[in-house]
Structure formats: C-alpha cells, structure tokens
Amino acid sequence: MSVEPAAKFVFEAFDKKKHDRAAFACEDEALTTYIKQQAGQDVKRSVAAVFVLAPNGKTIVGYYTLSQYAVDAGTMPEETMQRLRLPKYKELPATLLGRLARSLTFKGQHVGELLLMHAAKQALSQSKIIASTAIVTDAKDEKAKNFYKKYGFIELPDHPSRLFLPMKTIEQMFAADR
C-alpha cells in the first residue's frame, strides 16, 4: 500500500478508538507493541503525548511520543553549553522524543522525516509555553542514531545512544517557514 499523491497527511493526537492500531506494524516489535497495547494508557495517565500520522483519519502511517524531560547539564558538551549560552544549572529542561516509528507499509516514503519534523515543530511550539532547551532521544541502534544525526542531533559524550537537538537549532531549521 502506498499513499496516493493526492492523499493528505494529517497529524493528530492518538485516539485508541479512532486509529487502527491492529493494522500497524514496524521494523521494531517493541514499537509495534507500544502503539497497540501501551500508547492509550500513556496518554490517559499523562505519561506521553502520542501523535499519529493518519492520511485517512484511521490508518496509522507512523507515530511519535513527546514528554517533558530534564537533562543532566553535566552530560552536555561544554562547548555546546557555551555556544548556546545555557546557564550552569544542574538540570536543564528538555523535551523527550521517546518513540518514533513508521509503518512497514510506508517504508521508503520519507515518513520518518515527516514524523521527526512534525515532532520538532511541536516541541519548538510548546517550548514557548513550557521551557525546553532541546529535544532528547535515545537511539535504539546505529541505524536510528545515524538517522537522527542526519538532522543535526548531537551525541552526549557520556551516553553515546542519547542524542539531543538544541531548540535554537530547531528555530533555525524552521526560520524560513515564518
């Protein structure tokens, strides 16, 4: 199944009654299981905000989760702290991109990029209401790490699978959209 050129991709908050969880499958079993069994509970308990990409309002092409987070400032590269002129607090507010997955059905159609860009815009928008210095994510493997690094994410030296993307970088990415 592919998306027709006329199909409109719509991002919306996950609704377990509306969105077809049973049909979703991705390359990672844990991410497939999450949307099918856990996402609704996380939303209900305010543990994660789950957003889906649904071109017809039902089919889940992909999804991502966002949560509040705090980064241990001591794990941030000193050069980055200085460049971003971040205060020397023990912890810095951040947004956690906890999960990001796209359906196997839509592999090769740049859905991962669409999901990541929407997550970045959403995080940037919310950072004006609830402060956040960066998006933080934990890459599950080298392929995921390379995906994030392609979009400017930086590895935290003490945690090689943990990456971050400063909000200032995201602002610059979307400056042309204003």
CATH topology label: Aminopeptidase
CATH architecture: 3-Layer(aba) Sandwich
Number of domains: 1
Whole-Å distance between the termini?
34 Å
In DSSP terms, counting alpha (H) and pi (I) runs of 4 or more, how many helices? 5
Order of helices and strands: EHEEHEHEHEEH
Uncertain segments of ≥5 residues (pLDDT<50)? 1-6
Question: What's the level 1 CATH class?
Answer: Alpha Beta
Overall description:
The chain has 178 residues and is of the alpha+beta class. It has one domain: Gcn5-related N-acetyltransferase (GNAT) (Aminopeptidase). The chain contains five helices and seven strands; from the N terminus they run βαββαβαβαββα. The protein has a seven-stranded mixed sheet with strand order 1-2-3-4-5-7-6, sandwiched between helices. The longest helix is centred in the C-terminal third of the chain and has 17 residues. The N terminus is likely disordered.
